[in-house]
């Protein structure tokens, strides 16, 4: 996964999701749940890479950050709950998919 299109396409595979562009700055793509409108992925370009902000269980936040230099405290979000994944090719795709999948389920609600 390297492009915005790749990230959006993966996110849209989850049930009842949609992409949203709520800001004047069209650099920000938000992936939301249809039933509660909660965001599970924030997709944007920064420093010539696509970044994806994902919600993370508190016990895994630091683990992901320690495992991969391209997983950092979330840009523009609460760093106690969210990580940024920098899509620079250094993180195995399955790990990126897992982080996005976890974020989807953490924000889905009851």
Reconstruct the topology from this structure:
Blueprint (H helix, E strand, L loop, with lengths): L3 H8 L5 E4 L8 E5 L5 E8 L2 E7 L2 H10 L3 E3 L8 E5 L6 H16 L2
Antiparallel strand pairs: 1-2, 2-3, 3-4, 4-6, 5-6
User: How much beta, percentage-wise?
Assistant: 25-35%
Strand arrangement, major sheet: 1-2-3-4-6-5
Derived structural class: alpha+beta
How would you sum up the major sheet? 6 strands, antiparallel
How much is the radius of gyration in Å? 13 Å
Q: What is the general shape?
A: globular
**What pattern of helices and strands is seen along the backbone?**
HEEEEHEEH
**Strand segment count:** 6
Residue share in helices?
25-40%
What does this entry show, briefly?
The chain is 31% helix and 29% strand.
Search tags:
alpha+beta; single chain; 110 residues; six-stranded antiparallel sheet
Structure description:
The protein is α+β, with helices and mostly antiparallel strands and 110 residues long. Helix content is 31%, strand content 29%. The protein contains three helices and six strands. Strands 1-2-3-4-6-5 form a six-stranded antiparallel sheet. The termini are far apart.
